[in-house]
């Protein structure tokens, strides 16, 4: 019956419908379990609004425009930053700091070529009559470096340095993230030059110029903050997926000396380009090589992308947007789930954040993880289930479902028909850690459609559950006593098929 399986897997059959859990080897984690793992609160306004939200928030995020730090050329103003760090330190919390290039110091426009009165995405200098600066100009790079070096020196001497979780690596070329110059603006003739500026020698703009600039910013942040030993740097995941991070940068990520972040979290990637960023987190964070920080793209409660979001080809509700974004982040192995304050404070989402805060950071630490789970889906990008120390076997015959209903669970699911097994893989280190003589709990969230019943055989203990046809999502719970035998779970559907959202094992 199990000849096709590697020796580290276990197979158990259970009649007409089987859910099988196999034991999967885990990878030894390099990055330690972080004390401040959990929910990071973002876009919350004044620092007075940052608190633990009843124990689920550990970290904040504060941002400054370049022009706020450098109101005059070479004169840096960090007093407001000091006051904010003092507040965060007094609360026993951490923060990520980001310096944005949406607004530049005015003096730069006197010494660096720029596009006059032209608006580019996220660049707000046009409010003062300016467009993008020639960010690859040596003077621009010199001034950016000077500001970053001054900030790094200030933070290293700050009495509140321990409140800084890390610095977010920003390009600050056009706005904060962008770098692309439109074809109609690439030649020197379209740019404005003031009296004190020089043209520089790199014209017209090319993608290679932009890539070289982005690589330079990575070097600069590493030089300034000396990550791991001094102040952590969160590297943009797109620098890895897009190839602008050099091999030595990748080695630092691989060794946990550079952390990762992105600002694109959604229920699933919206296209293949963003999918490649998620895979960076899976490759480096889920395997325990480094730590990750994933920020939500938009708000589930107020952002227009939430309830009108149709990237899956179907409508999506606010609760689904929030819930599946969190599951996607956990699936990607991140330690810090950065979510907007309006969503974290939304009462209907509280259970989602408690669940996520409990699991954040444990993906590469199965021996101490509070549990293991799998949320069933197929999806359009990053196809497959969202998993946390539990996976579905490749020869599974269950059917993917989309938009089962409008509840948080119903965006995706899978249906197991009678006579066809569902096969799962449970991390072997996690499974071994359950044999500690303590009580543990297995739960299955299922759609209560139709009649019939199903059986759960969990580590030598069997229970039967009847379906009542309410069409609600229900939870079948089985307490696992200390006398656990084996490393497997089985679910047997009797008479009718079973629609399931999640299987979870939790420590008690």
Number of strands: 23
Q: By CATH's scheme, which homologous superfamily of the largest domain applies?
A: Glycosidases
Question: Helicity, in percent?
Answer: 10-25%
Q: Class of the largest domain in CATH?
A: Alpha Beta
Number of helices: 13
> Could you give a short account of the major beta sheet?
8 strands, parallel, barrel
Radius of gyration: 25 Å
Distance between the termini: 33 Å
What is the molecular shape?
Answer: elongated
* The CATH topology of the largest domain: TIM Barrel
- The figure for the number of domains is 2
Structural class: alpha/beta
Question: Which ranges are low-confidence, i.e. pLDDT below 50, for 5 or more consecutive residues?
Answer: 1-29
Average of pLDDT: 89
Instruction: State the strand order across the main sheet.
Output: 2-3-4-7-8-9-10-11
Name of the CATH architecture of the largest domain:
Alpha-Beta Barrel
């Amino acid at each position: 019956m199990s000849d096709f399986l590697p020796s580290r897997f276990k197979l158990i059959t259970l009649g007409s419908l089987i859910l099988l859990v196999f034991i999967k080897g885990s990878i030894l984690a390099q990055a330690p379990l972080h004390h401040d793992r959990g929910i990071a609160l973002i876009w919350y306004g004044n620092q007075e609004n940052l608190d633990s939200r009843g124990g689920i928030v550990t970290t904040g995020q504060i941002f400054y425009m370049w022009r706020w730090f450098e109101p005059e050329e070479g004169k840096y103003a960090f007093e407001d930053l000091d006051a904010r760090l003092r507040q965060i330190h007094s609360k026993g919390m951490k923060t990520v700091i980001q310096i944005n290039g949406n607004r530049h110091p005015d003096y730069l426009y006197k010494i660096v070529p720029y596009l006059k009165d032209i608006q580019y995405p996220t660049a707000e200098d046009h409010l003062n009559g300016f467009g993008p600066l020639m960010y690859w100009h040596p003077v621009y790079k010199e001034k950016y470096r000077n500001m970053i070096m001054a900030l790094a020196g200030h933070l290293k001497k700050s009495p509140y340095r321990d409140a800084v979780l890390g610095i977010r690596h920003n390009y600050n070329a056009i706005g904060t993230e962008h770098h692309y110059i439109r074809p109609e603006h690439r030649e020197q003739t379209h740019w404005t030059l003031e009296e004190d500026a020089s043209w520089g020698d790199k014209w017209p703009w090319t993608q290679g110029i932009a890539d070289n600039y982005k690589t330079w910013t990575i070097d600069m942040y590493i030089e300034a903050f000396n990550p791991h030993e001094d102040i952590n740097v969160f590297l943009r995941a797109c620098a890895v997926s897009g190839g602008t991070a050099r091999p030595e940068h990748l080695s630092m990520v691989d060794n946990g000396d550079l952390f990762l972040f992105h600002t694109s979290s959604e229920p699933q990637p919206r296209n293949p380009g963003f999918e490649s960023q998620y895979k960076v987190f899976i490759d480096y964070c889920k395997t325990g090589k480094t730590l990750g920080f994933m920020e939500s793209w938009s708000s589930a409660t107020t952002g227009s992308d939430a309830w009108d979001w149709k990237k899956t080809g179907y409508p999506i509700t606010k609760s689904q947007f929030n819930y599946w974004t969190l599951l996607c982040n956990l699936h990607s192995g991140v330690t810090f789930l950065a979510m907007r304050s309006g969503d974290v404070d939304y009462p209907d989402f509280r259970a989602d954040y408690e669940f996520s805060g409990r699991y954040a950071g444990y993906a590469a630490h199965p021996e101490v993880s509070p549990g293991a789970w799998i949320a069933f889906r197929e999806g359009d990008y990053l196809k497959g289930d969202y998993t946390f120390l539990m996976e579905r076997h490749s020869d599974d015959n269950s059917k993917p479902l989309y938009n089962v209903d409008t509840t948080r669970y119903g965006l995706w699911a899978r249906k197991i028909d009678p006579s066809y097994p569902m096969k799962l893989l449970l991390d072997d280190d996690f499974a071994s850690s359950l044999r500690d003589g303590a009580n543990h709990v297995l739960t299955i969230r299922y759609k209560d459609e139709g009649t019939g019943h199903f059986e759960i055989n969990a580590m030598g203990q069997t229970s039967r559950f009847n379906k009542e046809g309410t069409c609600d999502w229900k939870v079948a719970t089985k307490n696992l006593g200390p006398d656990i035998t084996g490393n497997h779970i089985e679910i047997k559907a009797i008479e009718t098929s079973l629609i399931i959202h999640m299987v979870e094992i939790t420590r008690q």
